[in-house]
Amino acid sequence: MLLKNINKLVWWIPIKKLRDDIRNKLIIKQANKKMDLKYGEKETIVIDPNNDNDIEKIELVKDIIYKKRHNKTTKILHDYFINNKDNAIRKPFSYFDLYERYFKKYRGRDINLLEIGVQNGGSTKMWKHYFTHMLPGIKVQIYGIDIDEKCKSIEEEGIKIFIGSQSDRNFWKKIKNEIPKLDIVIDDGGHSMEQQIVTLEEIYDHIKDDGLYWCEDVGTSYWPETYGGGYKKKTSYIEYTKNIIDYLNANSAIKKDSLEINKYTNTAYSICFHENVVVIEKKIRPKIYQKYLEALIGINLNYGKRIY
After folding, report:
1. What per-residue confidence (pLDDT) applies to 37?
2. What are the C-alpha distances in Å from 153 to residues 47, 80, 88, 144?
3. Average pLDDT over residues 80-94
């Protein structure tokens, strides 16, 4: 009934793309209204396969996604989300395009993935499916971290869960001693400033040189209550990660800037800010290669020398 009513509202718009865009926005708006979402959860649809009332939500999501997408290779995660009949998954629409954009290059490879914030285990199993789907022989090891002991129940072959707090540096020391270097880290944990910053500081060096760090729901950096954020607050996670942009370019800074070269200068290929998501791609930078080359040929190449 909802879909029919919306179609009646937009059928007269002559430009198809505009008509579809308006139609999809109305569907999302009505779906959110129907689900009575809390502040800060815009465009988030939760599909619980054990809830009979979610049938209409599934149809809404299908209708939006399948009208926007035609390439089956870019719908693996979307399809899993829609057709999931296992553990509940709670994710915003906007994340799925980003997941495909950043994660697709790791498909077909043996990888180690860490997800912080397991909750129902729905997304943890989704990662396992995504990276092993129709790819026999691929070795994918998923690690999960959560503070809830019940999350141990989702362990299975290829999925191992650790119980502990992501803001506990001693806990991170233990984890890093027990798991190998990681290809992908997904922080979907408690979302407080301390939790996100401590996690980045502790896990970054444990990510492989061509690996990926992903932190979602970073909108809490603007929420002073509960999460400790606030607009332009120096101790927020967003302001903390903005500084990495300067470190990324530290080789170009002049001497009087006092911008010191650090691990991000040498190993961060990019840092990208999306709505509610921060992504850091790792790759050994040219400065490191230069040092190797200088040692090999015995000549100082002066790459990136600060001359002012």
Report:
1. 40
2. 20, 21, 14, 12
3. 79
